[in-house]
Specification:
alpha/beta; Rossmann fold; N-(1-d-carboxylethyl)-l-norvaline Dehydrogenase, domain 2; eight-stranded mixed β-sheet; 8 strands; 50% helix
Length: 329
Amino acid sequence: MKLCVLGAGTWGTALAITLCQNHEVFLWTRDPLEARTLSINRQHPHLDKAKLPDELLITSDMKEAVGGAKAVFLAVPSVAVREVSALAAPYLKEGAVLVCAAKGLEPGSLFPMSSVIKETTSDKYPVVAFSGPTHAEEVAKQQPSLIVAASKNTEAAELVQQLFLSTAVRPYTSEDVIGVELCGALKNIIALSCGIATGLGYGDNTRAALITRGMAEITRLGREMGADERTFFGLAGIGDLIVTATSSLSRNNQAGKLIGQGLSPKEAIDKVGMVVEGINALAPAVKLAQEHGVDTPIMNAAYAIIYNSEKPLEAVEALLSREMKAEDL
């Protein structure tokens, strides 16, 4: 079966390496030079020790990549999803399944990524949200990893599940698309906040508090938006939040730590050298929470640090000075 992965970053490449075990896979990058370099070197610069299989086909030609593919994985940064899905749309095969492997919220529309894909392609193509605790570096090394494939179209979700048979990636299906996508977008903000706390010199107690209360904020917003509350306590929810908020492999955690140590957000992003989705998601997430009347103090504090230049220590003091109350989720 022909499959296509759009986006040759670490996540897209890790997915392509995995899917290549059982299928014909095309990995697309918009940069012809990058396509040639990856094809020759068979090594991704940010995936140490993970060899690109000889049978993996790498191209910058969208028609060649997408044409005839039964499933198309979109694994580009969230800011590029609208453009790339629109570029792919003319070449989609009848009955193709679109797999959203990007996490984020679109500024302006506040859409999760699957809604962006639907708007730029067609309702006749089922979309599956693909999200969970899966560091690209570990997936590329074929380490056991569990993830969620969520779609209102059960057949499409089950197809994605079957694509990973006999690999180290094990997808579970779900119908809660909005819950899975909210978790994938918002956990990056909480991970960024945990990184800031680490950069300030705080320890496990503080990180545990941020993870727990951050999950409460995500759950409250999800509840208001009609998500299944069980999702937040599964792989796409607390599972993904834990791995992103605590691991040194997490870009959001890395960037937050640098900001806590005194770097500006731009300096932190430049030093990480890759997209930091938690920063991209902040503004739309805070706006979405405001529109739904949901209290999100941790996200608001992160927003103040990133966009209002508030000093991280002052943001912490503001959080700790909030009115005492009963714990709630």
